[in-house]
Specification:
374 residues, mainly alpha, Leucine-rich repeat, LRR (right-handed beta-alpha superhelix), 7 strands, globular, RanGap, GTPase activation, small GTPase binding, leucine-rich repeat
Amino acid sequence: MASAHADNPILNGRFSDVGTEPCTTPIPIAGYEKMPLVSLEEAVEPLLSLVPGVQRTVWIVKQRCENPLDELSPDESASIMLYTTEGTCGDNSFYSILNSTLRTEDRTKLRPWFLYLKLVLTALSKLPSVASNTTVCRGVKLDMSDQYPKGKTFVWWGLSSYLERQSLKYQDMTIVAEQAVINKQCTILYLPNNEIASKGVSILAAALHDNTTLKGLDIFSNDVGDEGVDSLAQVLAENNSTLKSLKLGWNRITDNGAYYLAEMLKKNRTLVELSLPQNRIGDEGVKLLADALIKHNTTLKKLSLDLNDLVTDASVNYFIDIMNQNQSLTVLDVGDCKLLSKASKKILYAVAESKENFKLDLETRYIQSTRESR
């Protein structure tokens, strides 16, 4: 799905550039598949004169992909991030130059890209596929009906990505909710680093009534606040939604928000992952969540409270009770809760080690947001 702000050339070009797609079918790309798999640094060597600053960008993405998920190698994961990384170069950005080259009739211009294409397409082939009947929407503020007559199939050569950092606001959530949730277009809705706030979340929450398709909702860094959490919690408490993963990191959620989530967990039977890193949840919030998990919830498998700096040693017994008494949870992440003492961490590790197939994470990590520090 393309952003509603298709007139922003830097942030939205990758979504709304359907207007530059050729309406004729270019010659298929051939030759890259015979190339060897090499490191990302080697893959971009032929591109040094074509893409400004690509070496520096490669260094940055490699640093961020040292321990990738989805069974990808660091180079494979970094090759995907290299394409999706936003820059300020407009038409000289990596993704823009690649897409322009993919669309050209002169296939010889693609030869310098073969090593990179081999690497990134190998990486993409290892990721889970979406259902064959999934619809992907792209938008452009142009009338292109003459170029795209009904009933005719077109091949798009440019790559695309998702709705991160598109300056989406609550006014945009009506169309997002309609297309992604109500019209059952998405199984995972990924909206981090936008500005949808509590009003936008209330629109999304309303769309979750009787939802049967959306499985994951990621609204990291959206200024959701406790009010937005309340909207989501009320809907999820009804058990009419199939949502399994809810990610609410960096959203100024306090113990009041934790209360709403705890009340939801007492009734919800579909959610298996609740991610709340880098919020303002303290010991009282941990107590409320622990009570819900110990006495009521039997389905949540992963709880993330890392980087909540207000959590202190007073929460240690709550964490111990969760590990000892809740039967469904297999992952508890409280990494870098800075007020937890070393002694408390040793106690928690000892309890976790006594449980079979349980992961306790107390390690330090850093979560980045495009926003100023909150």
